[in-house]
Amino acid sequence: MEAINFLLAGVGGQGVLTASNILAEVGVLAGYDVKKSEVHGMSQRGGNVTSHVRWGKTVYSPLIGVGEVDYLLAFEALESLRYLNMLRPTAKIITDDHRITPITVTTGNAVYPERGQIDGWLRQVTADVFWVPGVSLAEGMGNARVANIIVLGFLSRLLDVPEQMWQEAIVRWVPGKVLALNQEALARGSSLAAAAR
Amino acid sequence: MKKLLAGNEAIARGAWEAGVLFASGYPGTPSTEILENFVRYPGVYGEWAPNEKVALDAAIGAAYAGRRALATMKHVGLNVAADAFYYVSMTGTESALVVVSADDPQMHSSQNEQDNRNFARFARVPCLDPSDSQEAKDMVIAAYDLSEQFDTPVMLRPTTRISHSFTMVELGERQEHPTRVHRFPRNAKKYVMVPANARPRHYFIEERLEKLKAFAETFPFNRVEWRDLDLGIVTNGVAYQYAREVFPNASILKLGMSFPVPMQMIADFARRVKRLIVLEELDPFIEDFMRMAGIQVEGKSIFPLCGELNPAIVRERAIAAGLLPPGSALPKASIPELPPLPARPPVLCPGCPHRSVFWAIKKLHLPVNGDIGCYTLGVVPPLEAIETTGCMGASIGVAHGASKSSGKKHVAVIGDSTFFHTGMPALVNAVYNRSPVITVIMDNRVTAMTGDQPNPGTGKTLQGEETVAIDFEPLVKAMGVKHVAKVDAYNEAEVEAALKAFKKLDEPSVVIAERPCALLPEVRKTYQPLHVDLGKCDGCGVCLNTGCPALLHSIEIHEESGRYKVEIDPLLCTGCELCAQVCPQEAISFRAQADHFGYETHL
Known about the structure:
The complex is a heterodimer. Helix content of chain A is 39%, strand content 22%. Chain A has helices spanning 16-29, 103-106, 115-125, 134-140, 147-158, 163-173, 179-196, and strands at 4-11, 33-38, 48-56, 69-74, 87-96, 129-132. By secondary structure, chain B is α/β, with parallel strands linked by helices. Chain B has four domains: 2-216, Thiamin diphosphate (ThDP)-binding fold, Pyr/PP domains (Rossmann fold, 3-Layer(aba) Sandwich); 222-326, Rossmann fold (3-Layer(aba) Sandwich); 353-523, Thiamin diphosphate (ThDP)-binding fold, Pyr/PP domains (Rossmann fold), CATH 3.40.50; 525-597, Alpha-Beta Plaits. Helices cover 35% and strands 16% of the residues of chain B. In chain B, α19 (492-503) links the parallel β17 (483-488) and β18. Chain B is globular, with a radius of gyration of 27 Å. The relative contact order of chain B is 0.08. Classes of the chains: A alpha/beta, B alpha/beta. At the A-B interface, α1, β2, β5, α2 and α3 of A face β8, α11, α14 and β19 of B.
């Protein structure tokens, strides 16, 4: 079988790498060969962050090639646009509608596109565009930091992996004191997807 | 048991399984997590050294004393440790020594892109290049055996893509290697490299290299995978994975050891395949050896010399070179034409104590020579406060030379960890040779860029034990600096006053700007977001020039100026108060006032 390729994109501090750890763990639990790749260092200082996660029978490259992304998970609206050239024609896009204003916009050197524009561009790539109000939902739950898990929860409904493996992966990667909150976030995301279908 | 491990975690695991007792290193992306993971295992000792040369000397000392030892660093760290790397190649050791040089193709977090396989060749040291985490672990273990078998240090050369990728690893058990050395060796002919002893050792290392060449022919990590004979690929490191991905039917000679290369194996492989290519990142290293042996091969004529490879680049270049049929490009999604998207460059974090120091330094209107650390981000707009950055410790030396030769005053900006690393000899030079350089030590108590590792100024060791926190003020005074000011980096006026006083001097001076990194857990507990009084803000934008990501345009426009008023993102603001200090309208609350707005600290 060909690998299933996930590209996760967001901004430093959003929990992109935690989300990719969990996603990779789910792949392992589901019996796949898994590779995951990301870059640390300068990119963590408020810059954009990406992580590549690949599930397959045998996965060679830790990086996804151009035209091979099956699922794009964006944790910030603008970041959904940066890697469209990586997508397969059949790709699905899940994006948080949260906006984090880049310094280039605050200082007046660039303009942050409107949501309608972003949506229009994404839909030119694929009809499968899912907007998730991850950060606002998470804030409502009392902790904006679980927005990443809400987005993962949405993805979980689009994949053929038993729910209990997602829960198990979360248990492995999330500290005990916020476990219940993260489990609830996963369920929220999942039920959003159920409603969207 | 199988586990998903990052390359760096796998290297740490391998070192533990190989019975390593002593490890030393200096943090540097992409190598940092090796030691951080290593010290979590029982029965081992690991430490951060002030620089890579000291780390390697320390590991050499342990290996001389009969303990399996490890030194870790990033590629440019080996430049600093090169002196030690060469002499230990000459002397060999009593117990095994492995040097990890983590290279950074693409310069994800580095100032250059050097290929450290060249160092292995230069020092006649065998070099192993893992292509995933499993190999990283297995090769560390093999490297220790190799080191003892041939009396040589061994280089393990992961790249960023190996160090920071997670792949499945089968875990093993630790094999203890108790020392057979009961007293420190007295063997001057081997270990005291005066010329009379060193000359025969040069013959020794050249003979050792010949033996290693023969060994490379049978080394199990050098292997041939026979498939279709139309195309043969010689490859190593992560490029092997791209070869498998893009050319599933090609025959492959995978070299786990990139120096010395097994020439016989290569020649046999070359004879059997129709078209022969080398797929390797950065330099044409293996390719050059093949050409020198008269083997006709293509490599860098097809694939790029600069930057990291990836499956897309390999596929594209392969199609262009006729290695793959033109139709083998992958179908891509149709992409709309987008306007240029707003860039999201890395910036100094909200609450970063470096920001106020740069703000004050800019008011001096003097050239600023920078250094390697988070504060290199002082170059990014809107601060744009640095003229040069080269390598670790360069700031003070460059500022001295520029100042001495031109008669102009310069400012050198250097972090605490970098000052310990290689800044100290440069400051001694500025004092000794009398240049009026103002050195600003940005003392945030940790090595922040690589993730807040402790350093000699922190008061904690890598293993979390309490230790001496070296105090800069008496240190630089003892180095002969007469004018030393210690200031609170969060107090812009105080920093500015100290700098302006020193601007008048024609002797070297040091400003120690203290404030712990805003990302430290104990600092996070004190975050208290500030608030903009929109009634007072006139949208002048002075605060935005600090480049703090917590400051945003509000939706309100100031009537007279027609400019957006500013608001503060309460999720990002730490309450450092720089914006409040620089606001001409006094529109931003200080922490003491912020309580009135009813915000809570995020504990």
